[in-house]
Write a structure and sequence with these properties.
Rossmann fold; 14 helices; 44% helix; cell wall biogenesis/degradation; seven-stranded parallel sheet; alpha/beta; six-stranded parallel sheet; GlycoTrans_28_N
Length: 363
């Protein structure tokens, strides 16, 4: 069996594709896997690092929404679709799995032409153009939110790294807190705004950290590598405030924490729910509003709270986050709700859909 994965461009497309690749190989070490990508995407680094073949095709950026520019897409796509077809022919592909973005569209069109089964995975609550079109070509459509409107949607979740999907937070909590220089006992708030949305969160948490410490809460703060590192005033006898440029072991950060303050990207929401970590979500106030839509089902289930970026202040943290962190019963209830909503087995469920799509073609 050979599976072609189309999920290049951003980590939000690539990481789920690689998690699926790992799951396919766990089930059948002999399965062939090729990832489609372009010269300018993160896949040029991430895919080879994980040991998978990368096949490059020309990049054809797609408009997020229907616009007059959409009329020019078919002409610009011809060469890219032909390149994708060549990859399918060379690998004798049994299935194409697309994760959205400008690599997925030519892969879907090439698979449609050659009669190769298609599986679509949509990580965001609001699907992009490529997956809307891909969903017309197959009944095998996996989504990350239970109320998705995408055609033929089946709620699967987002395939995650095994270090996250299999994480037992309580089992490694002591090790995790020691690794970050945190105290063993106090309730712990993890803060990260990601690579692009950190500034606002950084400003607020720096101002409110002393109040949290005085209330018995310690803070692990990933400020982002491009931002200045705060100089905390850790007074003797108070829980620490630990700022770090970035965290390369998010599994340990999740294990160390009792709650998180963060943005609401699809991967973040999926990871936190999978590990049962409640969060205060602050959707990025840009784009088409998809971050709020990503977090809303989990918040509705009781696994977190949500606040508009403009309303995030030190007072809001004191009034809405601090009471959760200092109430063990409420923390436990929110953690359980998040875990019940999460899909740590999304990679295996998506593997099942791949085999289902192949079997349907052979039937």
């Amino acid at each position: 069996m050979h599976v072609v994965l189309a999920g290049g461009g951003t980590a939000g497309h690539i990481e789920p594709a690689l998690a699926l690749a790992d799951a396919l190989r766990r089930q059948d070490p002999s399965v062939g896997i090729t990832a489609l990508g372009t010269e300018r995407g993160l896949e040029t680094r991430l895919v080879p690092e994980r040991g998978y073949e990368l096949a490059l095709i020309p990049a054809v950026p797609l408009p997020r929404k229907p616009t007059p520019e959409l009329i020019t897409v078919p002409g610009r796509l011809r060469g890219t679709v032909k390149a994708a077809e060549d990859v399918l022919e060379r690998t004798k592909a049994d299935c194409v799995v697309g994760f959205g973005g400008y690599v997925a569209m030519p892969a879907y069109l090439a698979a449609k032409r050659r009669g190769v089964p298609i599986v679509v995975h949509e990580a965001n609550a609001r699907p992009g153009l490529a997956n809307k079109i891909g969903a017309r070509y197959t009944k095998h459509v996996a989504v990350s939110t239970p109320d998705s409107k995408l055609r033929h949607a089946r709620y699967v979740g987002i395939p995650l790294r095994r270090s996250i999907a299999t994480l037992d937070r309580m089992a490694v909590r002591h090790e995790a807190r020691a690794a970050f220089g945190l105290d063993a006992a106090p309730p712990t708030l993890l803060v990260s705004g990601g690579s692009q949305g950190a500034r606002r969160l950084n400003e607020v948490i720096e101002s409110v950290a002393p109040a949290l410490q005085r209330s018995g809460v310690q803070v692990l703060h990933a400020v982002g590598p491009k931002n200045d590192l705060p100089r905390p005033d850790n007074m003797p006898g108070m829980p620490p405030y630990v700022p770090v440029p970035y965290v390369d072991r998010m599994d340990l950060a999740y294990a160390a924490a009792d709650m998180m303050l963060c943005r609401a990207g699809a991967m973040t929401v999926a990871e936190l729910s999978a590990v049962g970590l409640p969060a205060a979500y602050v959707p990025l106030p840009i784009g088409n509003g998809e971050q709020r839509l990503n977090a809303q089902p989990l918040v509705k289930a009781g696994g977190g709270v949500i606040v508009d970026d403009a309303d995030l202040t030190a007072d809001w943290v004191r009034e809405n986050v601090l009471p959760v962190l200092t109430d063990p019963g409420r923390l436990h209830a929110m953690s359980r709700a998040a875990a019940e909503f999460g899909r740590p087995d999304a990679d295996e469920l998506l593997v099942g859909m791949v085999y289902e799509a192949i079997a349907a073609r052979q039937a």
